[in-house]
Each structure stands twice: as structure tokens, then as C-alpha cells.
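Re: your question about Catalase

S., sorry for the slow reply, the queue was backed up all week. Below is exactly what I fed in.
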Amino acid sequence: MSSNASEDPWRIVNLLCNGTLYSIYTAILSHTLTSEAKMLGKSEGKKVNDLASNTKDYHDKNNRITTDWGVKQSNTDDWLKVTAEDKQGPMLMEDAFSREKIHRFDHERIPERVVHARGSAAFGTFRLFESAEDVTNAGVLTDKSRETPVFLRFSTVLGSRGSADTVRDVRGFAVKLYTKEGNWDIVGNNIPVFFIQDAVKFPDVIHAGKPEPQNEVPQAQTAHNNFWDFQYMHPEATHMFMWTQSDRAIPRSYRMMQGFGVNTYTLQNDKNERHFVKFIFTPELGVHSLVWDEALKLAGQDPDFHRKDLWEAIENGAFPKWKFGIQVIPESKEHDFEFDILDATKIWPEELVPIRYIGELELNRNPDEFFPQTEQVAFCTSHIVPGIGFSDDPLLQGRNFSYFDTQISRLGINWEELPINRPVCPVMNNNRDGAMRHTITKGKVNYWPNRFDAVPPAEKEEGGYVDYPERVVGIKRRQRSRKFQEHYNQAQLFYNSLSPIEQQHVAAALSFELDHCDDPVVFDRMAKRLAAINFDLSQKVAEMVGAEAPQESHHNHGDKSKGISQLEYMPANPTIATRRVAIIIADGYDSVAYNAIHAALASAMALPFTIGTRRSPIFAAGERKSSAKGVKPDHHLEGMRSTMFDSIFIPGGAESIASLSKNGRALHWIREAFGHLKAIGATGEAVDLVKQACGMDKLVFSSGGDVVDSYGVVTLSNVDTSGLGNIVKLVKNGKNFAEAYGFAISQHRNWDRELDGLNTMVAY
Ligand code: HEM
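Result:
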């Protein structure tokens, strides 16, 4: 689905509901949203202003095409050549204009990131609502009056730059905070742990996950022998692979994922006390995922699904927000836990170390150009500011080396001068020269100390970074400490803490992945490894993938932890904001139901899209084609698929339903949405269409004026306008059809449908 202005849902509402109260209402709403967006846009502040000096407006009417050396060009379509009236002649090398154009094109690509190559980003703001001065003196974590500009890049890990968004993978969550004291980068993921404990293993885990060396297959997937071979050979990866087999690895949207710094950092306060810390971002919209079949299909049907989703939400003024939290452990308690708090394969369970939410991150502006911003942004875990420090986490220490190093090969040594990467505070030092140096530093010396006393180091009081004097005693050797050798407790904790439906998804994901492994050594061993986590799980998966069923069961401690199941993150107030809803119509549709539900959805900030049997106007029951304008759908049934929407609604109308019931694609839309556990709404004659499409005794349908919600299929047979209603509050068994249907959408997916096996009874 493209995100151009012509698909602006507020505009569409206005067009479609012309002349009704709805248009006035949505016009006000649209105006409010736009003003709000503008207001917030204004406060984007320092970084956007900083970028302004490097930003040109392509659409300025005074622009003329020039060469890179500034000469205006009169023709960029024909290479200079020797021609005659009737004869095409040789092309001349002398044409420097044309040669420049081709040169520049030939060198447009830079090396893609060795990992996390596929990504999308946005600008935003970070604000604090509680000072953390008891544990740190970092300005960004103590000054509540600040608005810190941020640039956040989301990514997948394994795929190439052009790979699909919805594959099963970890998602990157890399935040650059342009603070007054310098850039602070939190280079995190949407999963709180990692595959390995020591950074020196990173090339191995990535080689194993990337396409196999002999044929470069498969792209952007972990469903292959090498990935699972690695998982078995490295028991330390057990906890992490359980997360990647859960729904966390197939997010519905970047806006609906948590972000975790993963590594253990430290905080230092004015009393010179040190605390260990982990950073966490939790989304306001809840943590939601796709279902696997949907993710697989979207990878082909709309490979840019997440990219467009983020762009669309920000363009519509529905700015995604995350609460920012810290988990803090005083230095004196470092060894009080049964796991090592410096081990990145472990979480700090919230029961032991509660999350303290102290701030908020909002994304409110799309980039102006992808390459100089999203592609050239470069993060470093080593970028910290005073008040924040490293720990001896061996993964973090290696990362601190790796990121700077990789930026040199991707962008060159002067990468920190690129507009998107440069800080908003002054930068001055004696680093000089190198390819593509931009800064011109006036002065007679470029070293310290110098006879002019120029550019001295800063005192602590002036904001100079002072390293914490950590006492270190030990033996130099290649070894992991004792606690680093336990790998199964938290893998069990993770699995035990999932809801039954999420556990079912883990079993299905493992069964899918191992089915793609054709080496029995790989899947037999993996089935055994699963027995170390949960015996039933190992049996189920072994049976599905044809592995030897493990005989030995390991003890499972039975403990659970909060904050692991995604279902715990449902928003306190149900919302359908930014949910994409397809309204399916054919000629003869019921315009009353269509208009009412379209407007009700838009008023609750959902995004209704009209899907017709064609994209030229569709006429309502009673409308005359010769005189009425009809409704121009956003798309037609063949152009889109149900996978691209969170829900579908079908208004009645005898003629419309008669034609849809003979349309295989329309029936497929309904069945697929049902199979993918999405809310389905139907009114009037459409109730019978949904009944016919699903063909299932267990579903109950409305047969009169009552609204019936059966497994998230919400129907109203006898439609009168009062029965359709507006959405005032989304609560279960809402007062009218719009509210009941809206509530079903707000639940994201109807898990009961899957728990009771209904989704497997329809063909889609
Ligand atoms: C806690 C574990 C890790 C997390 C959460 C993590 C996260 C990330 C993220 C989010 C990115 C993408 C940044 C962007 O959007 O531009 C990234 C890129 C990268 N990571 Fe990691 N990573 C981890 C471990 C490692 C380790 C252990 C290494 C190497 C020793 C490593 C090396 C890289 C490299 C080379 C890139 C590409 C950077 C670029 O070209 O801009 N990562 N990582």
C-alpha cells in the first residue's frame, strides 16, 4: 500500500461522507491532528535545525539542473555526438556533463551494513518525566526541562538491504540521542537477550544465520541447517532462540515492539556511586505480532510492510510513543543473583529488578531523504555521555570495538561529520584529515599540549568525561566465569511465562524452522535440546519434524516472570488508533452502514480503506450510475490482500452481497482474515456472506437487531442507523455495532479462534 497523500484517510473520509455531519467531525479531527503534528514538529528542535544547512528543497521553482561543479546544464537527455540529418554518429568522450552523470550513478551504492542492512528510521524527541539523579548525573537522564532530539532506526538483522520486512528475525532498535553533552547511542534490539556471551563469537553466529556459503540460500531466514547447527553447538544461545521462535520475532509493526539496550551499562552519580543499568522502551500501543502465515505471505505481497506502516502513522500525525525505563542494580549487589548480571544471554527478571519508567520517546517526523539519513546514520555502542559508563559485559566490550570499525569500511573515517551523525554540541579536537574531511579548522597547531594553550581538555566541572575508577583484579586467560556456564534456567523461565497460545506459536515456529533443515543431525539434536527446556515441547516438535523423540526429560523449575508474555502489554484503554481496516463493497452496497462505520472508525483514529470490486466508482443501492458520483475505492480486491489490514468490514446491500458471494477473491479475503484471527464485521445481507465463507457451526451470527460477537466475528443482521452507532468507548460488549466491532479490532487478534482450532477449519 503506497503512502502518498491521495490515500490520506482523513481526506478520504471527507470525500466519502460529503455533506454529512461526519465530514464536519472528521474535518475538525483532521485539522486537530495536523495542528498537533505541526506543533510537535516545531519542537523537533536542535537536530532538525542543524540539518537545515545541509538540506536543499528540490521543488524550489528557481532550481535549474547543474553539474556538481555548479554549471547550469541545457540538456541532460542526449549525449554529445556527431550526427547528420539522416545518420546517428559516434558519441564524444569530451561530454563531461554526461560522463559526470554516469560516474555518479555508477558509484551510488556503498557497502550495505554487514548486519541489520534492512531498516527504516524516523526523527523524534526524548523527554524525562522523572529525574534519575539518585543514580546518574547524565543531563539527559536528570533534566526534566529538556527535549532531546533523537533519530531511531529499526531493522531486521539477517536480510540484505532489499529483503522483506516481515521475516522471522530479531529487530534492531537503535536510538541516537543528540544530547547537549554529545551523542548517546542505545543500539538495542526488540528482544532483551542475545545469542552469544562473548563478542568474539559474533562473526560465527552471523555467518551461521546468513545465507549458506555454497549457494547463498536462504535469504533473510533462520530456517536452515547452519543456523540450527549453531544453536545446538552453542547452548548459550538457548534462551535467545526461544525468543526468536516466539511472536516477538514477527512484529505487527515497528511501533508495537519493545526496545532493549540488552547489554549492561553503568550509571554514575554526583556521589561517585556506580550502578549497573539496563535500558528498556515499551510501546504505548502494546506489543503485537503478525501471525506466521500472514508474515510469510506479506514477505511476498508487501515486502515494505513495516517501512510503510511507520511512514504512514507519522504522516497521519499518529506519532508512536514508548515509555523509557531503567533497571538498576547497585554496584554492591552485583554478585547477589544466581545469574551473572553482565551476561547478555540473561534478563534481569522484573520481580528481582523492577523497571523504573522515567521518560518517553516519541517519533514525529519522517526523514527527508533515505540515503543521507537512514542509510548513512551510524551507531556506536561506545557513544556514551558523562554519567553513563560501560560494564565488563564481554559482549558490550567487543561491540564497542566493532561498530566504529565497521563504520570506517561503510562510510569512511570521517563518518561522524556526516550531517545525520554529527552532534548538536560543539566538536573540537586534534583528529584531522582522512578521506572526505569536511571540517576546516583554523589555527596554527593541531596537537595538545601546545604553546597557545588552545583547546585544553575539559575539567570535570566543565562537563569533562571522567572514567569510574573500577578496581580490577584477576588472571589473564581465555575463560568464562562460573555463572556464565548455566544456559537453561532462563530459557525455561521464558517458556513457562508465555500464555498457552504463545507457547503453541513457539512449537509451531520450531516445527516450521526445523522442517526446513534437511540434515537429521541438526533436527535430531535440536529436539534433544528442547527437552532441556520443556519435555512436552520437545515431543511435539520431534513428532512434527520427524526427529528422534527425546527420552530424557530435564527438570523444569516451573518459575515464571512478568513482562515476558506479550499479552501483558495490552493498552489499559483499548484503542484502534492506526489500525488498518478494509471495507469491502460492490455495486448496490448499503451506503448507510458503509458511511456510518467508515466515519466511526476514522473518528477513533483507525485507518479505513475502501476496497471495491474495481477502483473506478462503486454505486450504492438506489444510486443511479448516470447521475451519482459513487464512491471511488482506494483499491480493488485483486490489488490488495487481507494480510495488509488488521480487520475487514462488509456492509450489506442485496446486490453487492450477491456479487461478492460469487467472487472467489472476496470469499478468500474473508476466509483469510478469519484464519489470521482478525476481527470481522458484517451487517445486513453481509452476515450471510460471512456465514457462507466461514462455513462453521461453532460461529454464532446475528439474526435480528442484536449485535453478536462470536470469536471476534461481529454481526448485526437488521440494520437501522441507531444500531450502528459511533465509537465513544471501546469496551467489551459495547453499546452498539460500531463499539462492539471496534472493541474486537482493539484486541488485535482473536486468540480463542486459534485455541479452539477454528482457524484451521477454513481453507485460506
Ligand atoms: C547485544 C547484542 C547486540 C545488539 C542488541 C545489536 C544491535 C545492533 C543494531 C540495532 C544494529 C543496527 C544499527 C543501525 O540501525 O544502523 C547493529 C548493527 C551492527 N552490529 Fe550489532 N548488535 C549486537 C551485537 C553485536 C556484536 C557482538 C557485534 C560485533 C562484535 C555487532 C556488530 C554489529 C555491526 C558490525 C553492525 C553494523 C553497523 C553498521 O554498519 O552501521 N553487534 N547491531
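Residues 113-116, 119, 153, 155, 172, 174, 187-189, 194, 199, 202, 262-263, 344, 378-379, 395, 398-399, 402-403, 406-407, 410 surround protoporphyrin IX containing FE (CB under 6 Å). The first strand starts at residue 119 and ends at 128.

Happy to talk it through on Thursday.
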